[in-house]
Amino acid sequence: MIQTEVKKLGDNEHEVEVRLPKSEYDRVYTEEKSKLISQVKLPGFRPGKTPGHVIETQFGPKIHEDTVSQLLQQHYVAAIESSKLIPAIQPELSLPKVQPDDAFLFTLKVSSWPEVTLTDVGELSFDEIEVTVDDEDIAAVLERLYKSQVSYEIKEERAAEKGDQLHLDFEGFIGDEAFDGGKGEDVALVLGEGRFIPGFEEQLIGKKAGETCTVEISFPEDYQAPNLAGKAARFETTVKSVGEATKAQDDESLAKLLNFDDANALMEDIRQGLEKEATQASKGATRESALDALIEAHELTFPEGLIVEDMKATASRVVQNMKQQGMDATEDMLNDEAFKAEVRVRSIRGLNLSAVLQAVRKDFDILLTAEEIDAGVDEVVTAYPEHMRDDYAKYIRDNEEQMAALKDRMLEQKCIDHVVSKGKVTKVTQTLAAWQKEQDKVIS
Prior knowledge:
By secondary structure, the chain is of the alpha+beta class. The protein has 3 domains: 3-111, Trigger factor ribosome-binding domain (Alpha-Beta Plaits, 2-Layer Sandwich), CATH 3.30.70; 121-137 and 274-443, Trigger factor, domain 2 (Orthogonal Bundle); 150-247, Chitinase A, domain 3 (Roll), CATH 3.10.50.40. 49% of the residues lie in helices and 22% in strands. The chain is built from 12 helices and 11 strands. The strands form 3 sheets. Strands 6, 7, 8, 9 and 10 form a 5-stranded antiparallel beta sheet that branches. Strands 1-2-4-3 form a 4-stranded antiparallel beta sheet. A two-stranded parallel sheet has the order 5-11. β7 and β8 (177-190) form a beta hairpin. α1 packs across α2, α3 (135-148) crosses α5 and α8 (337-363) packs across α11 (400-422). The two termini are 60 Å apart.
């Protein structure tokens, strides 16, 4: 009954002309007209007894519109199946301005996924990277701990110095008027950290507990609160206490400060944490190396509509990640050509990987076992406190969306593991510190 003619418009772009017999249009038109006859009440006619020609005169355009809507709903899926195309995004529908006398026509512009002819993955060459932990990595963590683990001892007569922690009460004024957000009580401030408005901390050096002073500053021109930007202000300030910084002098005292039994226990905890990080880094680095090789071996072309749609989703993820890190995505940033170009590159890479990994999954019949899925759930819940893990595992298993996302990630990883197991790998060893420096360069 349904006939389709597929015309190629370009790479992975097709136009599908769909033809239905006129009798199908007439059948649905009659059904829609009958519905109106039973529903409409017109003057001079009993309910349900209005003649058909009167209904057509009054509601002809509506009957036609409802008929077209019904025909599209009833035959849309069959038209796609008949075309043997797999849409990558929602097809664009159009109707001719004038329908032929013997048929009902509509067309679909279909953007499809590219066909992937998978190369011999056994011929792929890439690095299998092992990230290791050495003494330099442990020393770097120790150095950070020595700097960050600080306690403060209150000194009654101490004149505040850089590095001391002060507790303050203050209230800010523009002229003689106090302004919103300018008041604080018992606020902790470490001199030299630069947390307050430029010029504020410097004026507290030399102050002692119990002293009051007036701190005069000017808000920066680009200050986040427009009503304060660029304005001169004063803060009536009381220093409540001055604490001198005390740092650990050796590994034993550092361990005690961090609630470990001794330095050996601290070192073992640091090593375990670093080795876990190195294991994840090894998997991630090898994964990226394998994926780069897969992309290089498969040059795919994607429909522009699919790229644009994916770019919207990619930009949305970037903005969401920025918000989670406390940053704002401005209109200027979103409209910046360099930003849009970067998003486009990410989208095309993601689409390429998705298409190629689907081919790997299909060609090698890669599936997940029930045991693997259970292990995947168990791994996810290890990020939660032990007493919460059973409840969260149940939540994941009962949530179709959560389980689908988890299975997708696991299948993708299993496909990548398969490629790694078959490819021509060159084993490369890298220290965790060296790997981290490379990541910092990529991020910057």
